[in-house]
Amino acid sequence: MVERLVANEKVVGSSPIARSIINVIKSSFVTSVFQKYLINNDIRKFKGKFSYYIIFRLIRKFLATDIIVSIYNFKVFGSIKKNKTSYFLLKKCEFGDDKELETINKFSIKNKVMFIDCGCNYGFYSFYTASLSKKNFVISVEASKLTSEEFKKNLKLNNFENVTLKNCAVSNTDNDYVLFNESNNDWESSQTHNEFKSYSINKVITLKIDTLIKNINIKDFLPIIKIDVEGNEMNVLKGATTFIESTSPFIIIEISKYIFADKNNVEYFKNFLQKFNYSIYNTNKKKVSIENIMTKLSMLKDKYKTIGNYYLIKNFSKILEDFISDE
Length: 327
Hints:
CATH architecture of the largest domain: 3-Layer(aba) Sandwich
């Protein structure tokens, strides 16, 4: 096939239009072959395989469309654009966050999980949780309109009926329009800052978690909130106080410098933990203090902004008991 294309290129000549047509045909062929290579395999199978990395490095510039990636028990589109989070599924053959995913799976084995995914991006956490059990219920929230469209494509690809998406900014108010800084790199977009090379500014409506779940029957669900909203995490907690007080959810939160750029957030976080009787744990199940958190953040080099995910768990709760158990 490739030989025929090369021969045809010589016959047609070297005009820009001819070269463009040939490149499109080549790209479509390469994309089709690579898609068939991946489609029936969990992408994690190729992690650490030198042959895969060589193949991907050679062909990545010739891929014409996003590639459907199988991982765990679901599928998503792996972007061919380096500025998209899902590109790293193709590059690294994994999502990462293994301990967080294992923890969600551990809860799901014993319970029906209600998972509220704040800052869901293209939906990995959401689809992972939905795939664990049809009884799990997932509410996904994404402020970026463009990224929400990618989420919808992935949702359609899996046909999950236990996932619902809200395109809004989860915060501490309802129905306010706020300015959202949408970065060219989809993992950076933020309501609170614009520390990126290229971005656009869009208006997006706000929504509180308390309002989000107001008319939902949450009985018999184990509640989990994941918060990854690039600096607006404390406002998400402020907008979920009724839900937290009544259900004591397990909270996965990304800790970054952006959160505590507002010094008032340090005091609010301390008061939150005290008021709701919560403690902070790292992904290795070790309790940590706010002082420890702040020290780690202060030790980061300027180019790094986050120390990763931590868990907020109510003291002496059944959720804590299940979390620290080895079963």
